[in-house]
Amino acid sequence: MYSYSRCGHQDERDASVPGRHYRPTWDVLCRSIPKDQLLAYNSTKGILQIQEQEPGSEERKVDDGSIVLCISGRCRRPGVRGARAGWGIYFGPGSPHNASGPLDPDLPQTETRAEIEALSRAMRVVKDTIISDGFHPRRCFIKTHSLYIQQVFPGLVRRWAAAAGRNIYGEKVMYFQLLMDIESLMRDVGNTGEDEEGGTNVLIWCAATEENREADELAVLAIL
Q: Measured on CA atoms in the order 144, 147, 153, 155, is the torsion positive or negative?
């Protein structure tokens, strides 16, 4: 079984757990590549993919079995009347899959709810549009600077599910059903592949805010 800690290492053998954490510095094939050169845009598929470099080699190659999607949620005037929240999802420069928008006014106008919306929408794009008969990515990286998303997946959401949607204090978890729906989407994506290992491995890429600028800008534009 995996062990959970916030952005901590997890047992790589349990690839069936969706939402395991990832950092390029943990990856021997990525740690020597500068952050601003780590991703390559596949204009044919409209997606970002991760680059790799063998230790001791100068040659880099794109992992054709990867997809990197970036998500962000932002809120203007949080905690006061008139607060407005928006979400952004970024698949690459000029990608037809890029999208953003304000939260429905009937929803709680918070950054957390916007981040959840971004994740939900991005996973649906991957499942319904990007993955196809001709493309079953081996790894799907969800790049986010949201501490909430990083904390919830995969450990907390699974603990809450075992406790029928309640936290350690016995209180109902806010957005529990939506979070469970997202984990179900991650599992659906993971079960799409045809290989014996079960398809796509969904990973939460724990990024700093400055490393997720494009998705963040989309979320900001949605509430201007």
A: positive
Crossing angle for the helix pair 176-190 and 111-125, to the nearest 10 degrees = 30
Q: Is the peptide bond before 154 cis (omega within 30 degrees of 0)?
A: yes
d(CA 27, CA 8): 13
For the stretch 177-206, pLDDT in tens is 999 999 999 998 887 544 445 578 999 999
Residue 60 scores a pLDDT above 50? yes
Q: Are 74 and 86 in contact (CB under 8 A)?
A: yes
Alpha-helical runs (H) found in 10-136: 111-125
Domain made up of 20-221: CATH architecture: 2-Layer Sandwich (3.30)
The pTM of the full predicted model, rounded to 2 decimals, is 0.89
Biggest alpha carbon–alpha carbon distance for the chain: 56
